[in-house]
């Protein structure tokens, strides 16, 4: 009976968000209360459970996500991302334009949130289209593939960071595994798949014809690359050092302290404030204004994540998580595949990758105990599933359609199929890595 109640609540959640256009955070809160009553939780404990779930979720993520948003915003506003893009184009040349765009998207996508990255790289895509007279989707899809994969696979992006927290995974390991899986996934769904789309007619809107920014107003390429990738560099170094330095060494505690993702992001933000801010003649007030604007951009995202944390806590308190665990343990489906399927179904129904990933995680998390499944791979499996088949209920679908001036049919053939290829390729990569390790 409890499983039926949970299924009913998830369906109602989907309907509230998709059909009745209720704000996702409010929808989560309503469903938490409804689920609490239907699952027999004492009415005096429902609100407390919701508050605990919100606190547990945000407590471990606010510093990481907010610092990441601030860093990404400064990378964009300082012109560092534009410098990286132009540098990649010069390095690869006309013959390998797609690969230049893929590398650019991957590098830019690590520090930037997807929507910010999308808007940022469009001038580059349009300039290539106008300059080399190439089909716009053929040129643009590879770089958007890279942005999408980094958004869904790699911390400190909100969804994978939230999943790391839910599964008590290691952010450094997840990042390393994620990069290993992301690279072939981007190649398959980007440059290879886009070759089948050259015949799609998507005339560029003149409104989006790019204007060049003077080179002398941009930061240097080395400065831009190191600043944009600083969190990744520091996380990688500290993660590798934890394997090299003996656990009883005097340096061990120091490395563990420095490897904390929150500290890594804060340290990176402090350094980038100087390298891309003060070093580029920005006033401290302007830098702080950029940081303030970045927080406004992600405020609702944080609330949605906290709502997912509240629902998870309700399921735990009610005991239904153990009931679901007992039922699913009898199914002949690998837990990594099950997490991917749950995230895929919720993604197709809701449209939000973040909501899909965190909701699926709340159901799967109790099953990890004693399963022997690597929690870092579970993060990536659900992250891949959360990108499945973006369609008309996803803001990214319409962003692509309007910028590339395509029909709904052609948007499905290009954008939606690319996201589906990313989801399936990601799962295959996770299963291969699971077999190896």
UniProtKB/TrEMBL annotation:
| Location within or outside the cell | Cell membrane
User: What membrane topology does this protein have?
Assistant: Multi-pass membrane protein
**Which keywords does the record carry?**
Cell membrane, Membrane, Transmembrane, Transmembrane helix, Transport
Q: Which domain of life is it from?
A: Bacteria
Q: Which residues cross the membrane?
A: 22-41, 53-76, 96-125, 137-154, 174-194, 225-245, 257-278, 298-320, 340-365, 420-436
Q: Which InterPro entries match?
A: Glcn_transporter (IPR003474)
Family designation: Belongs to the GntP permease family.
Q: Matching NCBIfam families, A to Z? A: gntP (TIGR00791)
**What is the protein name for this chain?**
Gluconate:H+ symporter
User: Origin organism of this chain?
Assistant: Chryseosolibacter indicus
């Amino acid at each position: 009976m409890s499983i039926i109640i949970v299924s009913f609540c998830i369906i109602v959640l989907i309907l509230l968000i998709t059909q009745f256009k209720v704000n996702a955070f409010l929808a989560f809160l309503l469903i938490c209360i409804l689920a609490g009553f239907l699952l027999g939780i004492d009415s005096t404990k429902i609100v407390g459970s919701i508050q605990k779930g919100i606190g547990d979720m945000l407590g471990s993520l606010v510093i990481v996500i907010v610092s990441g948003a601030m860093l990404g915003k400064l990378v964009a506003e300082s012109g560092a991302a534009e410098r990286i893009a132009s540098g990649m184009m010069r390095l690869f040349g006309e013959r390998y334009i797609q690969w230049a765009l893929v590398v650019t998207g991957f590098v830019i996508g690590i520090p930037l949130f997807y929507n910010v990255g999308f808007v940022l790289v469009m001038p580059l895509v349009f300039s290539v289209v106008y300059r080399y007279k190439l089909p716009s989707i053929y040129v643009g899809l590879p770089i958007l593939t890279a942005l999408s994969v980094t958004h869904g696979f790699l911390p400190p992006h909100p969804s994978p960071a939230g999943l790391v927290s839910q599964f008590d995974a290691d952010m450094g390991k997840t990042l390393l595994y994620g990069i290993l899986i992301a690279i072939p996934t981007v190649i398959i769904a980007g440059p290879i798949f886009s070759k089948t789309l050259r015949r799609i007619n998507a005339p560029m809107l003149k409104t989006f014809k790019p204007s060049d920014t003077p080179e002398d107003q941009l930061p240097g390429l080395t400065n831009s690359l190191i600043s944009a990738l600083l969190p990744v560099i520091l996380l990688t170094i500290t993660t590798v050092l934890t394997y090299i330095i003996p656990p009883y060494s005097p340096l061990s505690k120091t490395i563990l302290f420095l490897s904390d993702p929150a500290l890594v992001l804060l340290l990176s933000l402090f350094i980038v404030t100087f390298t891309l801010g003060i070093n580029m003649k920005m006033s401290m007030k302007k830098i702080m204004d950029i940081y303030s604007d970045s927080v406004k951009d992600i405020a609702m995202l944080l609330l949605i994540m906290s709502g997912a944390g509240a629902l998870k806590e309700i399921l735990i308190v009610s005991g239904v998580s153990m009931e679901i665990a007992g039922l699913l343990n009898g199914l002949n489906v690998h837990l990594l595949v099950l997490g991917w399927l749950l995230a895929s179904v919720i993604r197709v129904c809701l449209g939000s990758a973040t909501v899909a990933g965190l909701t699926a995680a709340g159901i799967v998390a109790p099953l990890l105990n004693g399963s022997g499944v690597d929690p870092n791979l579970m993060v990536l499996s659900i992250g891949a599933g959360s990108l499945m088949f973006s369609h008309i209920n996803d803001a990214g679908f319409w962003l692509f359609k309007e910028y590339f001036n395509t029909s709904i049919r052609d948007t499905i053939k290009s954008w939606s199929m690319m996201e589906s290829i990313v989801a399936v390729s990601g799962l295959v990569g996770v299963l291969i890595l699971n077999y190896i390790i």
